[in-house]
Design brief:
By secondary structure, this protein is α/β, with parallel strands linked by helices. It has eleven helices and eleven strands. Helices cover 40% and strands 21% of the residues. A six-stranded parallel sheet has the order 3-2-1-4-5-6. Helix 1 packs antiparallel against helix 4, helix 3 runs antiparallel to helix 4 and helix 4 runs antiparallel to helix 5. It is globular, with a radius of gyration of 19 Å.
Length: 308
């Protein structure tokens, strides 16, 4: 494949999908033969945004070939990358997460910024290069920032994210609050998903002190339909954990209206979960009020607990 692949993480969320689209578009505007790809299935929220702004979904690939030039967006840890990445040639990286085990053979362009969404960074690269995004590109970047910051409810939200949303909403010709709630509602309507899909929803792998675990997240506006499926979801979560020999698997059930999270976990993880959050666990669950961000409020605490 001659084109440069621009791709986000496995189990892609709206930020990862939109980043592949928006950054590949910017690279083409600047003269690079780049194309957006995805390393997993689209979720309902991403589909809503793509349909709303009339944007074609990135093509799915399950691996990259040796020597293929790749730009990574919205992730950098090897366990979250598309298969084959170790033998590919990563030429750029744009991200807003912690720096994991990323390494390259040669110097490359790397841009990290502690903001709520990687599309906030990408939008500012458009501005830096004097490239005005189309309505469709502005809409996708807007959708990503709304998604990752949960319409500014997430503690990861920064003033840069807020500024970007207001400017992008104008370019996209939408009221960001009204559009944002429509999109979040569409994404939260997942009660019809089978247990296996819910168990693996928006899941990322992490490693700490040689131990590999996963943290998935379900964002809803009513936890009861998900609670009704808890036994089946937990069975699927455990099956996947055992199949990959993870030390544990966690699933954040986050209510975006009440801004809290029920952190479910597989058998054997109770002590770590209680240690990580200094809370008592019951029925394979720790209740975390005012917790919405995996990046800032859940994965760092678990990483630390496993390292100690």
């Amino acid at each position: 494949m001659s084109k440069v692949i621009v791709i986000g993480h496995k189990s892609p969320d709206t930020d990862s999908i939109a980043a592949a689209i928006s950054y590949s578009n910017l690279k083409r505007e600047l003269g690079m033969d780049a194309a957006a790809y995805r390393a997993g299935e689209l979720n309902k929220e991403s589909k809503f945004a793509l349909d709303y702004f009339g944007v074609e979904a990135p093509e799915f690939i399950d691996h990259v070939e040796a020597g293929q030039q790749v730009i990574l967006v919205d992730h950098n840890e090897s366990k979250q990358c598309v298969d084959g990445i170790k033998d590919a040639e990563v030429i750029e990286l744009v991200d807003h997460h912690r720096i994991g085990d990323f390494e390259t053979a040669s110097p490359i362009f790397i841009l990290f910024c502690p903001v709520g969404c990687v599309n906030t960074i990408i939008y500012n690269l458009y501005k830096l290069n004097n490239v005005k995004p189309s309505r469709a590109m502005a809409g996708m970047m807007l959708s990503a920032i709304i998604s990752d910051t949960v319409l500014f409810r997430s503690p990861t939200t920064t003033d840069k994210d807020r500024k970007a949303v207001k400017e992008l909403a104008e370019l996209a010709g939408v009221n960001y609050e009204e559009y944002g709630m429509e999109m979040l509602k569409a994404g939260a309507d997942i009660s019809d998903y089978p247990a296996e899909k819910l168990a693996g929803n928006d899941t990322k792998e992490f490693e700490s002190a040689g131990k590999v675990f996963t943290v998935g997240q379900i964002s809803v506006m009513d936890v009861e339909p998900i609670n009704a499926k808890k036994a089946d979801i937990m069975a699927a979560l455990e099956k996947n954990r055992a199949a990959h020999n993870y030390v544990a698997s966690y699933l954040m059930v986050t209510n975006i209206l009440t801004e809290d999270t029920y952190l479910w976990f597989t058998d054997g993880a109770k002590d770590v979960a209680e240690k990580a959050f200094n809370k008592n666990a019951e029925d394979n669950c720790v209740y975390l009020p005012k917790v919405m961000s995996r990046k800032k409020q859940v994965s760092p605490q678990l990483i630390k607990a496993y390292a100690e």
